[in-house]
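ugh ok fine here u go
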Amino acid sequence: MLPTIFKLLQPLAWPAWVKPALYLALFVAYSATCFVKGMQYTDARWEAETAAAKLVQATEFVRVESVVERVKYQIVPQIQVVEKQAKTIVKKVPVYVPETASAQCIINRGFVWLHEEARSGVHIPYDSARVADAAPGIGLADVATTVATNYGKFRTMKLQCQGLLDIVKSLPQGKH
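structure:
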């Protein structure tokens, strides 16, 4: 097509600068067309990739949300059962650890100090001369109540951790 246009223009007397100007104008027009077409192609690819990424993200969100719901409906009732069991066991302490047994068993200060140190994780200074002394106001029933409550909390936390692990395992793995 271009050679035809140039053949039509040859019989006319044109100044010397017109032919290079015409080439330059055609080059600019062609470059602009290529640029616009390239931008349209790039935009279309960008939109397609963005839509695909949003679809994948929505799919992963729905999958993770279903795991969260499953965990919520499975773990929460189990936690409530464990808490109820722990409260029931604490209520049984006076039956299985009567006052007479509690009075006969001496809980010494050393046991209380060790228990507090294990509970808090902080070293508790104690008087070695008073380790064997009876701890005032602490009986075997108190120890049984504390142990039952602690194990109930442990079982509750164990269920919560299992639920969290299920959720974490369901999360999409990062691309490496």
